[in-house]
């Protein structure tokens, strides 16, 4: 089942686009500086970030500024290595073979970034001047032992998107 989900994710990524309505939403919730950072994403990551954000708004009726920005920037660290859908597919496959993944991450920077993107994302969020709450949510969005309800909402939306 996970394989089917990952294949669908890949196909969605290679066809991803961002609409005019999406940009209107972004202009409403992001500053010019934040939008310039958001535009560093390739289209497939923009689409994913927006889908995570919309999921949270639709499911929880929440328009909390920190949670919205955490949803939009939770994967911004991946821009450090220009992770494409093909590189992501390689990283996902290698996750199933941890000893090889750990060995190769020393040779391929994109693997290091992919596996540690919450840390890279938090660093960029801090550079952008986002709140410490946003930085915390982003840094912990793969911490599955968290008790923080907003982190859990972000994780749920991330998984569903």
UniProtKB/TrEMBL annotation:
Listed name of the protein: HD domain-containing protein
Domain of life (superkingdom): Bacteria
Family annotation (Gene3D superfamilies): Hypothetical protein af1432
InterPro entries: HD_domain (IPR006674), HDIG_dom (IPR006675)
Pfam (any one): HD
Residue ranges of domain HD in the record: 52-159
């Amino acid at each position: 089942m996970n394989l089917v989900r990952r294949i669908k994710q890949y196909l969605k990524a290679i066809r991803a686009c961002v609409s005019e309505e999406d940009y209107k939403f972004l202009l409403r919730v992001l500053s010019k500086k934040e939008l310039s950072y958001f535009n560093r994403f390739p289209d497939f990551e923009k689409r994913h970030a927006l889908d995570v954000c919309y999921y949270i708004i639709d499911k929880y009726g929440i328009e909390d500024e920190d949670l919205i920005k955490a949803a939009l920037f939770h994967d911004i660290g991946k821009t450090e290595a220009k992770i494409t859908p093909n590189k992501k597919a390689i990283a996902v496959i290698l996750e199933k073979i941890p000893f090889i993944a750990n060995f190769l991450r020393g040779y391929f920077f994109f693997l290091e970034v992919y596996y540690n993107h919450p840390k890279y994302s938090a660093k960029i969020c801090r550079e952008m001047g986002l709140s410490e709450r946003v930085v915390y949510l982003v840094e912990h969005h793969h911490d599955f032992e968290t008790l923080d309800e907003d982190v859990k909402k972000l994780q749920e939306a991330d998984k569903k998107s």
